[in-house]
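Quick one:
INPUT:
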């Protein structure tokens, strides 16, 4: 039932989107060629030709909107984020459409129509989405499209389900209560929902309250009671849904999949595969080449200053751990004495570190010592954006005391990252850095990478923890 309702409203929203996009295309053509508001020196373009373009528009917009997750359930409170995603999706779709129509050189399409269409579609789709969410809230307030449900379980799995149920307002689930496997819990509350009975009373409660759906969300240690719960339900006409306790252990793009015709619960994976991996690598190569060319004069000056002011090599080559736990040599401009770790071994840099050279202080405080890492990106050892790579000597300790630390190595290490632009750089709380790195991996997108790069320029180059 949950899936059917969700699919119904997804299809309804998809049809509404196509209707709005069609209307926006008609209006854009009318404004450009028919309204008289804009001079038409070359005459009125053939209407039929422009209507044929609707076919690739439908295909492109459908794929891009799906890729941006615009048909996933969203909270009503996320309107601003939804509008921003809509704008990004419409702009990308319009660019793809322009590229596609470029190959049909026998037709000369008006660029102004494309511009008007993009602006109108963003505005119209935003209004449509707001009205759609308000419509769903209205029919729920009127008591329509609501299903009464019970949750079986009081552990972490049940709590997560109840707490996140508001993320799916369009399915119209009304929780009448919680059923416990322990009669001693009756009368208590789970995430604000009252425990109204034990599983032995389940059949009677379903009949008495006219329950439509049952969500079995037992904790891992209670899984042996699933059979007894099902026997208690008997032949009551109720939808039964089971939420696996293993979902508590899902990380990094995990979820329900299908393999060989059977449901497959994936606990851990990576969003960076297939085309995503290609897009990220192409962006890394292009941007690193551009940045190497732009920073070349600066790097030559820095190299000369290092050579003139302190004995030793210009570059400092250090072993770091990257994707898959493989090590690589990371390049930096040398900012400390050549024998800085001869006696101490691998240690963290500290504020006012006496090992720094005069030039090194400036390099570290401005992040100019990181410039040679653009060559690491070009080689494929690193990415422009990703978790900062650490030294293997430190990682031995981190992986012992920090849960999920090694998940950082599911993707390539980066010159900058989500942790760094949020202030978790250098000798700061490693737990918070790992939290930010995991968040980045779970929410990766090309737009997220671009956002981090812009934030790096704005507030990441000079940082109070860079010493």
């Amino acid at each position: 039932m949950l899936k059917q309702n969700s699919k119904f409203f997804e299809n309804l929203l998809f049809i509404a989107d196509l209707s709005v996009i069609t209307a926006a295309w008609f209006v854009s053509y009318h404004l450009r060629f028919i309204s008289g508001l804009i001079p038409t020196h070359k005459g009125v373009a053939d209407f039929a030709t422009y209507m044929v373009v609707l076919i690739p528009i439908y295909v492109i917009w459908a794929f891009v909107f799906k890729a941006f997750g615009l048909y996933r359930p969203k909270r009503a409170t996320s309107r601003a984020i939804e509008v921003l995603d809509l704008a990004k999706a419409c702009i990308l779709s319009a660019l793809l459409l322009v590229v596609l129509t470029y190959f049909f050189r026998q037709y000369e399409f008006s660029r102004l129509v494309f511009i008007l269409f993009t602006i109108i579609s963003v505005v119209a789709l935003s209004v449509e989405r707001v009205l759609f969410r308000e419509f769903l809230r209205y029919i729920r307030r009127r008591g329509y499209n609501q299903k009464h449900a019970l949750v079986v379980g009081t552990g972490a799995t049940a709590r997560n389900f109840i707490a996140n149920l508001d993320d799916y307002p369009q399915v119209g689930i009304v929780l009448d209560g919680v059923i416990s496997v322990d009669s001693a819990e009756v009368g208590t509350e789970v995430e604000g929902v009252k425990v109204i009975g034990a599983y032995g009373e389940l059949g009677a409660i379903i009949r008495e309250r006219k329950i439509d759906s049952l969500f079995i969300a037992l904790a891992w240690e209670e899984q042996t009671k699933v059979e007894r719960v099902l026997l208690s339900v008997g032949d009551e006409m109720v939808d039964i849904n089971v939420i696996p306790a293993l979902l508590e252990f899902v990380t990094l793009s995990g979820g329900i999949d299908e393999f060989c015709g059977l449901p497959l619960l994936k606990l851990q994976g990576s969003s960076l595969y297939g085309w995503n991996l290609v897009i990220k690598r192409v962006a890394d190569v292009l941007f690193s080449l551009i940045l190497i060319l732009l920073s070349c004069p600066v790097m030559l000056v820095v190299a000369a200053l290092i050579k003139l002011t302190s004995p030793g090599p210009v570059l400092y080559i250090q072993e770091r751990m990257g994707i898959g736990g493989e090590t690589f040599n990371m390049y930096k401009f040398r900012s400390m004495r050549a024998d800085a770790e001869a006696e101490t071994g691998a240690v963290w840099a500290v504020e006012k570190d006496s090992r720094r050279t005069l030039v090194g202080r400036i390099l570290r405080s401005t992040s100019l010592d990181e410039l040679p890492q653009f060559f690491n990106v070009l080689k494929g050892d690193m990415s422009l954006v990703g978790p900062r790579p650490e030294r293997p000597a430190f990682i031995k300790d981190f992986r012992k005391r920090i849960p999920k630390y090694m998940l950082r190595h599911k993707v390539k290490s980066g010159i900058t990252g989500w942790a760094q632009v949020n202030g978790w750089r250098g000798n700061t709380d490693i737990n918070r850095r790992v939290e930010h790195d995991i968040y980045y991996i779970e929410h990766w997108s090309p737009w997220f990478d671009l956002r981090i790069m812009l934030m790096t320029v704005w507030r990441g180059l000079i940082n109070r923890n860079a010493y």
